[in-house]
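pls ignore typos typing on phone
protoporphyrin IX containing FE + seq
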Amino acid sequence: MSLSCASVTTPLTTVALVGIVAAIAISYFQRWMRTRKPYAFIPGPDPSSVAGYLLDLHNPDGLSWHYNMPEKYGHVARLKGGLFMTDALYITDPAALNSILIKQQNWFPESTEFAGLFGVIHCGDGVASVKGREHKKQRKHMDALFTASRVSKLTPLFYKVTRQLQSELTAAVAGKPPGQVVEMLNYLTRAALEIVATAGIGHTFNSFDDSSKTFEEFHGAITTVLPLGGRLFLFLPFLESWRKMKPVWLRRTFASMAAFFWPTVAKFRAAIYVMRSVYLMLYKARRKVLEEGGPAALVETPAGGKDIMSSMIQANWDAEEVDKMTDDVVLANMSSIVHGGQETTSSSLARFLTIVAEDSDLQQKLRAELQEAKAASKKAPGEDLDYVEIERLPLLDAVVREMLRVYSPVTFVWRQTAKDVVVPLTYPIRSATTGEEIKELLIEQGTAVYIGMGAANCSTAIWGPDAAEFKPERWLNRAQLEAKFPGAYSGMMTFLSGAKVCPGRIFAILEMKLILSVLLLAFSFDPISEPIDWQMGITIEPRVHGREKEGIQVPVRVTILSA
Ligand code: HEM
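k done
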């Protein structure tokens, strides 16, 4: 009996169950379809594939896609999610950015994907991956190390590396006909790594020595780890939960399995391991010095205790118990400082050389300004300009500002809304559905918000019709320039602003000005015949037009100037 009963009810039950599940699925799908397009009224670009905007956002040839965004669609644009993702927003509006980065910053944290990625790369909860109060606490430590007064004390360390750069470059072109083609990005990358290593962690990679294995290994690791991480984009949403997973053996087992099946994971892990070993070795050595000899003993360390790592360890040592950072946090922050100070500065320096190589008049004027400053300060031959003297060079200052405005090394950053937030707009949105003018915008919880820093820096509505042109003279009358954005540097977005503003900006600007001042007095620069194309990357990447397969490079013609 029970058998026959079952044979009657099972198909019915199954049909009913399937019907219920289907109805629930359809209702969820409809709701998802409705909620994933909350910004349908905002104009924005059509994605180039059904996969939505992501491929366009990261397209290596897509710099113009970013820079045209405010010109074509306005200062808030809708990024269509395509078949699988929800819509996102691309924002360059000053009032909205002020709200997102400053006034309501707590509701716009770093995306979980990036926080997870940086947490894994830096092996811990450093500034790049923590939020809220913990971020504030760590930034208090970090910002104290990057004040103008602290950074100015690093000037001799910067000069030491820059003089090495000068002599390496001299050796490369000496005795050869003028205008030797030199791949300058290679030299500048070595200089930037050596500077951030010396001044940042009190260490040398012997970066100018071609046979330096430590340089090769570390440089290989630091320059590949982010692009490798980018290739793991399928894993990005899970990295944050993976790195918090307990027990640790389970986390490690997952990582080993992934590395076994996917070579990119294995390379990514190996790169992290190389960097971590260096930081750990340095950190332990520095702690030992401190424990055995106290703060005074740090003077005996390679950078005389003046490097940022020594200062950070010492400050942490002296801090109240509640403000102390754990060893892992200090290490993660060392890693983020070295990471942050690498490609951004070297690619900006290389860009600068291409600009002055193309514009011999500007090059002459900059050189004349430096010669005059040296004469006025009555420096002995070979004696260097100090921090204040370098800061007081108006043309060099204007050129560096304009270069960082027009050619922001970081094109955009990614935030995710933590709750529904209303932001005001400087430039109202014209609704694509009703034609109505919208003066403030509700950004829904969970929305991916992309801050278009490069595009904001070049918006014609904000900077005028010549916004895209490289015109250093606009900074010579700075008093007349009103602040365009909440940006921490000259009202531009290059270093961002608010809690996540780049802590290394004063360091970066001094480094760039100092290297340029030395190079311009020692060499003249001319362009090669092919143009350099700059492409989207984690930071923007230069390749010679028509020779893209040769990889990232910036060849420039170099001639030694007679003394
Ligand atoms: C031209 C040079 C540079 C540019 C354009 C630049 C730009 C930026 C930007 C846009 C951010 C924010 C990223 C985000 O919120 O997702 C950032 C963060 C950071 N930068 Fe820089 N940076 C430069 C040089 C440096 C240097 C030289 C250092 C260190 C010596 C440094 C250290 C850092 C650190 C540690 C962070 C993370 C801050 C945090 O998450 O709170 N940067 N940088």
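Residues 1-8 have pLDDT under 50 and may be disordered. The pocket of protoporphyrin IX containing FE is lined by residues 110, 127-128, 139, 196, 200, 336-337, 340-341, 344-345, 348, 409-410, 413, 494-496, 500, 502-504, 507-508 (CB under 6 Å). more later
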